[in-house]
């Protein structure tokens, strides 16, 4: 599943590294967190510096490393209170016995223990230690206290340890820790979007990409649609709090995070799946697919053999998916697209009425700088007459930005009082 790496660029992870051989894994952890787009600052205890140098973390995090509580120079940069406020998550990995004990007792005699008391951010600890030290009554007592205090404890793995022992106490692999952090922020963002997003709680179905109409078992008719616009809209709808199903024709794009994807090939299959979505419940239907207008009347059962200078293949019209859905009794809010090379607005306005849509977004595909395979687009949006809403010009921008503006247009129309027609 792909992930939009920019989504965490406003999230700050304060990674605290304490004394233990697992500190070397924390270097990789910084890399993985940075890969996900997080801002990372590193705090090191004196014990940690016996295992790995601050310079390593400075180079990997791109930020100075914090080691001292009462160092005037360090406090002049980002002081401990500022650092505690900066953090959206305090992640202690590895967390030594000593650190757990300090946290449990509420000591504040070094930078990390002070940060622990001074931060409002959630605190996660990933204990790593010798299995006997993990099992020690004092350690378990301290862990219980921390859990009661609201600290999230990431359980250590079992296995062979650097000291030669075998048992519980290994820090989980850095990739696994980074994934847990990513999932935590992702779920938190999702919960907010589902409550407050522009499409909070809406069920959206989107058709995207081309369709493929078989001629025989090895050949087909299709078009150059890449599906990029539809996929960008699916991602934006999900970020806006919607439950999204993407009916995708054959395209080579990753499924946007959180989106349910159903792959289809022909127009008939796309219609079939669209009707199923309608039955399951759909509030908004967005048709971005470049559906083949015609399909082969009779698909050959076997590969057609070369013969003669001419080959005629009879075509019959495909159903219009968006128009069919718009005719249903319990119809969703219908959004169509129109790609034209001339009389763009006139043709689009005609389709809005003919297909009984609520909204249509049209673009001029004669322009070579936008549309089809491009990463950019520009559009004009029209609303059905009963909305009495002015058309909107969406200036040339990335398909992601255009998708966002389309969602705003849908949201505005859904909240607009409709004039009876
Ligand atoms: O008529 P035209 O193909 O230009 O209309 C484009 C709009 O109609 C798009 O929203 C497209 O996804 C939709 N459409 C459809 N089924 C078809 C043809 C077009 O849903 N068979």
Structure overview:
The chain is of the alpha/beta class and 421 residues long. The protein has 2 domains: 168 residues, Flavin prenyltransferase-like (Rossmann fold), CATH 3.40.50; 218 residues, Rossmann fold (3-Layer(aba) Sandwich), CATH 3.40.50. Strands 12-11-8-13-16-17-18-19 form an 8-stranded mixed β-sheet, sandwiched between helices. The protein has a 5-stranded parallel β-sheet with strand order 2-1-3-4-5, sandwiched between helices. Helix 1 runs parallel beside helix 3, helix 5 crosses helix 7 and helix 11 packs across helix 15. The longest helix has 23 residues. It is elongated, with a radius of gyration of 28 Å. The structure holds cytidine-5'-monophosphate. Cytidine-5'-monophosphate binds next to helix 13 and strand 16. This is Coenzyme A biosynthesis bifunctional protein CoaBC. Its EC number is 4.1.1.36, 6.3.2.5. It catalyses: (R)-4'-phosphopantothenate + L-cysteine + CTP = N-[(R)-4-phosphopantothenoyl]-L-cysteine + CMP + diphosphate + H(+); N-[(R)-4-phosphopantothenoyl]-L-cysteine + H(+) = (R)-4'-phosphopantetheine + CO2.
């Amino acid at each position: 599943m792909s992930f939009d790496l920019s989504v965490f660029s406003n999230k700050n992870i304060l990674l605290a590294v304490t004394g233990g051989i697992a500190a070397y894994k924390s270097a990789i952890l910084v890399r993985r967190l940075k890969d996900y787009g997080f801002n990372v600052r590193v705090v090191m205890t004196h014990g940690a510096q016996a295992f790995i140098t601050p310079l390593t973390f400075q180079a990997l995090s791109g930020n100075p490393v914090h080691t001292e509580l009462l160092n005037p120079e360090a406090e002049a940069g980002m002081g401990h209170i500022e650092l505690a406020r900066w953090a959206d998550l305090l992640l202690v990995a590895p967390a030594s016995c000593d650190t757990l004990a300090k946290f449990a007792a509420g000591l504040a005699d070094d930078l990390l223990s002070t940060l622990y008391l001074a931060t409002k951010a959630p605190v996660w600890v990933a204990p790593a230690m010798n299995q006997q030290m993990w099992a020690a009554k004092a350690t378990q007592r301290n862990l219980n206290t921390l859990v009661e205090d609201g600290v999230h404890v990431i359980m250590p793995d079992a296995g062979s340890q650097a000291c030669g022992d075998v048992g519980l106490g290994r820090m989980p692999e850095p990739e696994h820790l980074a994934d847990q952090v990513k999932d935590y922020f992702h779920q938190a963002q999702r919960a907010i979007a589902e409550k407050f997003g522009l499409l909070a709680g809406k069920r959206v179905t989107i058709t995207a990409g081309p369709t493929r109409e078989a001629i025989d078992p090895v050949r087909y008719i299709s078009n150059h649609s890449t599906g990029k616009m539809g996929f960008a809209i699916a991602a934006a709808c999900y970020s806006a709090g919607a439950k999204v199903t993407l009916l995708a024709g054959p395209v080579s794009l990753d499924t946007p995070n959180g989106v349910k994807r159903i792959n289809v090939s022909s127009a008939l299959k796309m219609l079939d799946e669209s009707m199923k979505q309608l039955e399951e419940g759909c509030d908004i239907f967005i048709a971005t697919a470049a559906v083949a207008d015609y399909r082969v009347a009779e698909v050959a059962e076997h590969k057609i053999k070369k013969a003669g200078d001419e080959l005629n293949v009879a075509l019959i019209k495909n159903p219009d998916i968006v128009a069919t859905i718009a005719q249903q009794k319990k119809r969703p809010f219908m959004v169509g697209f129109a790609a034209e090379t001339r009389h763009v607005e006139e043709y689009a306005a005609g389709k809005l009425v003919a297909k009984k849509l609520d909204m249509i977004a049209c673009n001029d595909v004669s322009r070579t700088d936008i549309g089809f395979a491009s990463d950019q687009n520009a559009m004009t949006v029209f609303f059905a007459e009963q909305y009495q809403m002015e058309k909107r010009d969406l200036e040339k921008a990335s398909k992601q930005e255009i998708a966002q503006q389309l969602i705003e247009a849908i949201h505005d129309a859904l909240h607009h009082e409709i004039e009876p027609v």
